[in-house]
Fold this sequence. Notes:
The structure is a homodimer.
Chain A: E1 6-21, H1 23-26, E2 36-37, H2 48-67, E3 76-80, H3 87-92, E4 100-103, H4 109-122, E5 127-134, H5 136-143, E6 159-160, E7 163-170, E8 184-192, H6 207-224, E9 234-238, H7 241-253, E10 263-265, H8 266-269, E11 282-283, H9 285-301, E12 307-315, H10 319-323, E13 330-341
Parallel strand pairs in A: 1-2, 3-4, 3-5, 6-11, 9-10, 9-12
Antiparallel strand pairs in A: 1-7, 1-8, 5-7, 8-13, 12-13
Helix pairs in contact in A: 6-7
Amino acid sequence: MSRLPIRLEKSVYIAASASAAGKNEKEGPLGDCFDLTSDDDRFGQDTWEKAESEMQRLALDAALGKAGYGQDSLDAVFAGDLLNQCVASNYGLMSFGIPFFGLYGACSTAAESLILASLLCGAGAKRCAAVTSSHFCSAERQFRFPLEYGGQRTPTAQWTVTAAGAFVLTDDREDVRTDASVKAIPRIAAVMPGIVTDRGIDDLSNMGAAMAPAAADTLTRYFSAGADPGEFDLIVTGDLGREGAEILRDLIASTGRDIRRNHVDCGLLIYDCDGTDRHAGGSGCGCSAAVMASNILSNVRAGVLKRVLFVGTGALMSPLTVNQKGTIPGIAHLCDITGEVTK
Amino acid sequence: MSRLPIRLEKSVYIAASASAAGKNEKEGPLGDCFDLTSDDDRFGQDTWEKAESEMQRLALDAALGKAGYGQDSLDAVFAGDLLNQCVASNYGLMSFGIPFFGLYGACSTAAESLILASLLCGAGAKRCAAVTSSHFCSAERQFRFPLEYGGQRTPTAQWTVTAAGAFVLTDDREDVRTDASVKAIPRIAAVMPGIVTDRGIDDLSNMGAAMAPAAADTLTRYFSAGADPGEFDLIVTGDLGREGAEILRDLIASTGRDIRRNHVDCGLLIYDCDGTDRHAGGSGCGCSAAVMASNILSNVRAGVLKRVLFVGTGALMSPLTVNQKGTIPGIAHLCDITGEVTK
């Protein structure tokens, strides 16, 4: 199995997903897709960190409500965020009292948590959840500058998305609530963990370039194991941004494959980037979590998208390692999601 | 399965384990047990963060060597540490090129990584690894004060251990290398993820008190599901320190059970605490990782310990949440390890 895709022997379904997002995200192209939004990005809390925790709580609560599951029925939740010591997750999900696995995969955490939740569902658990978040204001002051500083950004810089996404998984198709609008149930058919990849990028304002080689490595391994890029309605990366997405397409083209027709990036879907401060697009692990949990999976459920390859990408540096002249390692985790047509 | 132990249907074995540790740890009661030590805590590196990464690399390399496994044969590695963005793991294990899952469970990470590695081995992977580290110098300047400041500590404060531990797991007993000295092979019989528990402790210098209720919750759930404290040669927590260990014993006693006879804490095993700066004992996720990977598992292999309950405990706050008047949530993950007697 080493370095190869893990095909789930037992079927694992995404019973429901939900998202919470901030003001900029609500005003973006996918604004109508999010379940909960806050016009001041505070979600009723008095610190940005508590606001981020609250987004996680709201997203998981909404996903459980859609699935019709009580919180007591979950075997485990896998969760992560960008904050030091992952406190958005630690505090945000405490009230549920669910067995908890904390993850750190930078912006790849949505995919990492989906992989681990689906593996645990396939290994005897019945229902698991995966929750991820980021918040522009908590991330900005931790990773970059105080908000009041108003620093300018380079064109390749990405904008940390204020959002959370939650997914509730089950090992039983009969356990998935459907209605007439649901044409297909999203099933996780295969997963593939990423390998840490470092090509020497050291520019904190160009993380897309640092992550693209990791995405190319994971996708190439997946395609080499038998999948063809053309099989997928969408290949969804999150979040390479404009620069990283271009680099990924070029890297894949250099292997003789073409993803230009069906590749989209969550960081480019969530904002209308032209002429705004969003520059190269969104980033932050809430970005791909919220885009997948809302727009993409809705389209799978509606039968519009039949097969989606989700590749979550993360940049694994810290401000300290970059100050110490370190380069930026990247990682990319993959989930192959199929819509299983309902009767 | 919810909130209950997960009994591994397929047997998962710890084929080998190894540890790297610093000067204070070498001079402690378990000093002779560690595979690699560094008298200046630098492991040949020019920053403390790189030294911590190097400990992870050395520990995994040594564990692979003992097991006789090539790094290419590992299906995945689960790793974590205490540094912001988990950079000790991200950079330290990059050279192996193994599919990588980054975790954050504070000082519970050794147990969290063992749980997830054993679940993946039970779900189709053949060989997985779990690696965890902490370093006094990188942790001190990140969480507390610059080393040069020389701040005094309260009696309940713990000392971050400079150490890393690595475990290599396999799903095949025939895949475990043994010699005449090996009387038993450590097998992970059951695991149980922790639930985030917050009893309102807000003193950063008394994290044992914040973690003890989580350990009590996990142990009580495990005992209630059918295990008796007396079945285990050792119940090993990591790392509650002196204060937390006392609180845990009292909390368990209040449920009508007694663990005083067979409970030890990794933070109290690794240092001779009386009259030294170690105060309430060791902490940091390298502590339980190194103690389990060296002394405890050696005694399982030697047939001295037949059954060990390992409960890794973590405090899930950040310096920021404590400054914001937040309390300190704790978590405790459990692994039930049995020595399977060799022929």
